[in-house]
Amino acid sequence: MAAGVAAWLPFARAAAIGWMPVANLPMPVAPAEKNKRQDEMIILNVSGRRFETWRNTLDRYPDTLLGSSEKEFFYNEDTKEYFFDRDPDVFRSVLNFYRTGKLHYPRYECISSYDEELAFFGIISEIIGDCCYEEYKDRKRENAERLMDDQEDNKDAKPPNMTFREAMWRAFENPHTSTMALVFYYVTGFFIAVSVITNVVETVPCGSSPNQKEVPCGERYTVAFFCMDTACVMIFTVEYLMRLFAAPSRYRFMRSVMSIIDVVAILPYYIGLVMTDNEDVSGAFVTLRVFRVFRIFKFSRHSQGLRILGYTLKSCASELGFLLFSLTMAIIIFATVMFYAEKGSSSSKFTSIPASFWYTIVTMTTLGYGDMVPKTIAGKIFGSICSLSGVLVIALPVPVIVSNFSRIYHQNQRTDKRRAQKKARLARIRIAKQGTSNAFLDSKKNGLFNEALEFTVSPEEQHLRKTTSLLENQHHHLLHCLEKTTVSVVLKQLVNHEFVDEQYYQQSYLEAGLQTYPSRSPSLSSRDGATGTCCTRRSKNRHAPLQNASGPPHMEPLTHQRGLQELSTIHILPLSTSRSSLNEPASLNCRITTAIISIPTPPETTPEGDAHLPTGPAHQNVVKVSAL
Amino acid sequence: SRVTFSFLSVRYRPERLDHLEQKTNFSKKELQVLYRGFKNECPSGVVNEETFKSIYSQFFPHGDSSMYAHFLFEAFDTRNNGSVSFEDFVVSLSIILRGSITDKLNWAFNLYDLNKDGCITREEMTDIMHSIYDMMGKYTYPCIGDNAPMEHVDNFFQKMDKNNDGVVTIEEFLETCQRDESIMQSMHMFDSVI
C-alpha cells in the first residue's frame, strides 16, 4: 500500500457503513487502540542537519530502520533527538521516500555511497521509482564491471604453489609474467612473420636466366624455401603441442578458435609431406597451400588490437547480418532490373541475372570497374539509382560497428591504465602498513622505557611522549595482547612471540645460517647449540626495546658480524630476564645500560627505515638510569 | 470554499480550520491529520471520481471496488458537481464517525438511495449488493454463488420492507435497524476509527 494512501484508512473504514445495514452476521470487534499516540514530531539530526517529520510518516514502512524500533538505538536523551552520523545529502532521498513513497536516485551521488546509505537505513534498492531506476541500474552495472576488472587483475598475482603445467599455461597466456614467456612470445612472433614473408616472396618472380622465362623464386630456390618452411612448421608444431600439454582443459583448448587456426596453419605442410607427386592430387595440393596464409592470424595472439577487432565483429554480428541481408536484397532487385533493361541492347554483357550480380555489386559499393556498363537509357537510369542506393545501404550499419569498436577499445585501455594505477596504490598501501608496524614497534620500545623511567623523567616529558593518540595506544595494546597470547616454548622456557619488522625477519632468517656466536659466556654457548632461526630472531628482537636506536633500523647493525657478536655476547645474559626484571630497573638495567654505552658504533650505522627516536635523548635516558 | 484559477489548473482551498471545527465533530488536531493526508494525495484540493476510485481500490486488492467507490463518491459529493472537496469529505466523515446513530443510519440510507428520491427500490439495492460482492472478488471460501447477491437482496427486503410495497422508505429503514441488535452493535465500531 502506498504511503500516502495509508492516511486514507480512516475514510476506507468509514465507508464500511454501507455494509452494516445489509450484513447478515454481526461485525467483528474493532481493534482497540491503547494509548493512542498523538501525532508527534520527530527530530532527526543527521550530521548536524536537522530533519523534522511526523512520527506517522516514518511508521509507514515498519521494516526499515527509521520505521521500526531500531531507531531507538540512535536516540539521544539529552537533546531528545535521533542522531545519525551519516551523509545528510543522501538522507534527503531517504526521508523523501517516507514522505512520498517514491525513492529517487540523484545523479550526482556516487553509486556505492548511495548503496551504503540504503543498506544502513534498511531500504531495498528495488523500490527506486521508474524515473530513476534506469540510471541507477546503469551506474550499478558500470561499477560492477569495474570491480570485476580489478579482480581479473588479481590473477596476475602469482599463486604460490603451481604445478609445472599450470606455470607453463600461465606463461603462454600472459607473456609479461616472466622473462622466459616473453622470449617465447617474441620468438614465435618472429617466426610467424618469417613464415608469412616466405610465403609471399615465394611467388615473386626473381631473376630469369636468359634462355628461360621468368620463374618465381619459389621454384628457383626450392630447397631454401623448403627448409625455411620446415623450420617454421616445426616451431609451430612444437608450440601447439606445448600449449596442448599445458592447457587446463584440453578438449576446450582444441575447440578454441586460436588452436584451430594453429592446426590449419600447419596442416598443409604435413599433408604435402604425405602426398606423393601424383598429378591429379597436386592440383588439390596447390589449393591447400593457400591455407598457409592463415598463419597470419596467429598474430592475433600477439596483438591486442586484432583481438579487439575480432571481438567487435563478433559483438556486432547482428548489425553485420542486417547489412548483408539488405545488400543481398538490393543486389537481387537491381540485378533483375538491369538484366531486363539491357536485354534489348545488342552485344550486351548482361547475359543473365547472375551475370548482372557482378555489375550491381561493383556499382553499389561505388567501385565502378567499368567492365560492364549499361548502354540503354533505361539501363543507365537504373544504374544510377543503383549506385545512389548503394551508398545509403552501406553507410547505415557502419556507425554502429564503429561505436562498438570504440567502446571496447576504450574499455581495454582503461584496464591497462587501471593496472598501472593499482601498482602505485599497492605501493602506497605497503608504505602505510609499514608505518603502522613501525609505530607499534617504536611504541613498544617507548613504552618499556616509560615504565622503567617513570619516576626519573619529568612529568612534562612524560606527557609529551604519551600524546600518541588514544587510538594508537589502544591499537598497540591490542597487538601486545596478541603477542602475549601466542606462546612457544624455547629451551624449556615459555616465551611469547613478538611482531618484528619484515625486513628484519628476513635478514635474521638469512643470517641465522651464516652467523656463529663466539661463546663468551657459558649461557650463550649453551644457547648456541639449541638455537635455530627462531631463537636468533628472538634474541635479536630482545635487543630492540633496550637499544637506543630507532625501531627497525636498529636491526641494521646486526648485519655487521662483529657488531652482532658483541651485542649478543653482552646482552644475552641480562636479557634473559629483561622482561621480568622491569620491576626492578635499577640493578639489571644498570648493567645493561653501561654495556650499551660501551658500544657506540652499531646504533649509529645508518638505518634503512625511518629514525623514530634520535639517539641523543635515549642516551641521556640511559645515563640517568645508570646514575640511579 | 474559494476557487482559484491559475492558468488551467483549478485549486480549492478549504474553509478555515476553526469554521470546519464548528461544522464537524472533529477536534483541531484530528482535522489537521485528516487534511494532511487529503492534501498529500490530492494536492489540488479536490478529489475527482478517478482518484477516489484508485485510492479506494488500494484497500481492496482482491476484487473490483470501482462500483462501490462510485456509489460512495455519489454519497460524498453532496453538491453534485463531480468533485469532492475537503469540506464535503470531512463533513461526511464527521457524520459517519462522530454522528448519532440516527445520523449514521440516515447517511447509509442516502448511500443506498441512488437516485435520491427517498426510497430504495429493488434495482438500487441489487446494484449495491452486486458492488459489495464484487469487492470480494473470485477467490473466496466458500465460493460465492451467482445467486448470492439476489438472495441477499431478498433477505434485505424481507427484513426491511414492512408494508411489502417493493420499496424501503427511510422510516421503515430506521425502524428496522434500530430494532436490530447486531446492526446497532456494529454502528459503535466507528467510534474508534479516528
Automatic annotation (TrEMBL), chain A:
<feature type="transmembrane region" description="Helical">
    <location>
        <begin position="320"/>
        <end position="341"/>
    </location>
</feature>
<feature type="domain" description="BTB">
    <location>
        <begin position="40"/>
        <end position="139"/>
    </location>
</feature>
<dbReference type="InterPro" id="IPR021645">
    <property type="entry name" value="Shal-type_N"/>
</dbReference>
<keyword id="KW-0732">Signal</keyword>
<feature type="transmembrane region" description="Helical">
    <location>
        <begin position="381"/>
        <end position="402"/>
    </location>
</feature>
<keyword id="KW-0406">Ion transport</keyword>
<keyword id="KW-0472">Membrane</keyword>
<keyword id="KW-0812">Transmembrane</keyword>
<keyword id="KW-0813">Transport</keyword>
<keyword id="KW-0633">Potassium transport</keyword>
<keyword id="KW-1133">Transmembrane helix</keyword>
<dbReference type="InterPro" id="IPR028325">
    <property type="entry name" value="VG_K_chnl"/>
</dbReference>
<keyword id="KW-0479">Metal-binding</keyword>
<keyword id="KW-0851">Voltage-gated channel</keyword>
<dbReference type="InterPro" id="IPR000210">
    <property type="entry name" value="BTB/POZ_dom"/>
</dbReference>
<dbReference type="GO" id="GO:0005250">
    <property type="term" value="F:A-type (transient outward) potassium channel activity"/>
</dbReference>
<dbReference type="Pfam" id="PF02214">
    <property type="entry name" value="BTB_2"/>
</dbReference>
<feature type="transmembrane region" description="Helical">
    <location>
        <begin position="353"/>
        <end position="369"/>
    </location>
</feature>
<dbReference type="InterPro" id="IPR011333">
    <property type="entry name" value="SKP1/BTB/POZ_sf"/>
</dbReference>
<dbReference type="GO" id="GO:0046872">
    <property type="term" value="F:metal ion binding"/>
</dbReference>
<feature type="transmembrane region" description="Helical">
    <location>
        <begin position="253"/>
        <end position="275"/>
    </location>
</feature>
<feature type="signal peptide">
    <location>
        <begin position="1"/>
        <end position="16"/>
    </location>
</feature>
UniProtKB/TrEMBL annotation, chain B:
<dbReference type="GO" id="GO:0015459">
    <property type="term" value="F:potassium channel regulator activity"/>
</dbReference>
<keyword id="KW-0449">Lipoprotein</keyword>
<feature type="domain" description="EF-hand">
    <location>
        <begin position="64"/>
        <end position="99"/>
    </location>
</feature>
<keyword id="KW-0479">Metal-binding</keyword>
<dbReference type="InterPro" id="IPR018247">
    <property type="entry name" value="EF_Hand_1_Ca_BS"/>
</dbReference>
<keyword id="KW-0519">Myristate</keyword>
<dbReference type="InterPro" id="IPR028846">
    <property type="entry name" value="Recoverin"/>
</dbReference>
<dbReference type="Pfam" id="PF13499">
    <property type="entry name" value="EF-hand_7"/>
</dbReference>
<feature type="domain" description="EF-hand">
    <location>
        <begin position="100"/>
        <end position="135"/>
    </location>
</feature>
<dbReference type="GO" id="GO:1901379">
    <property type="term" value="P:regulation of potassium ion transmembrane transport"/>
</dbReference>
<dbReference type="Pfam" id="PF13833">
    <property type="entry name" value="EF-hand_8"/>
</dbReference>
<dbReference type="GO" id="GO:0005509">
    <property type="term" value="F:calcium ion binding"/>
</dbReference>
<protein>
    <submittedName>
        <fullName>Potassium voltage-gated channel interacting protein 2</fullName>
    </submittedName>
</protein>
<dbReference type="InterPro" id="IPR002048">
    <property type="entry name" value="EF_hand_dom"/>
</dbReference>
<comment type="function">
    <text>May be involved in the calcium-dependent regulation of rhodopsin phosphorylation. Binds three calcium ions.</text>
</comment>
<dbReference type="GO" id="GO:0008076">
    <property type="term" value="C:voltage-gated potassium channel complex"/>
</dbReference>
<keyword id="KW-0106">Calcium</keyword>
<feature type="domain" description="EF-hand">
    <location>
        <begin position="148"/>
        <end position="183"/>
    </location>
</feature>
<comment type="similarity">
    <text>Belongs to the recoverin family.</text>
</comment>
<dbReference type="InterPro" id="IPR011992">
    <property type="entry name" value="EF-hand-dom_pair"/>
</dbReference>
<keyword id="KW-0677">Repeat</keyword>
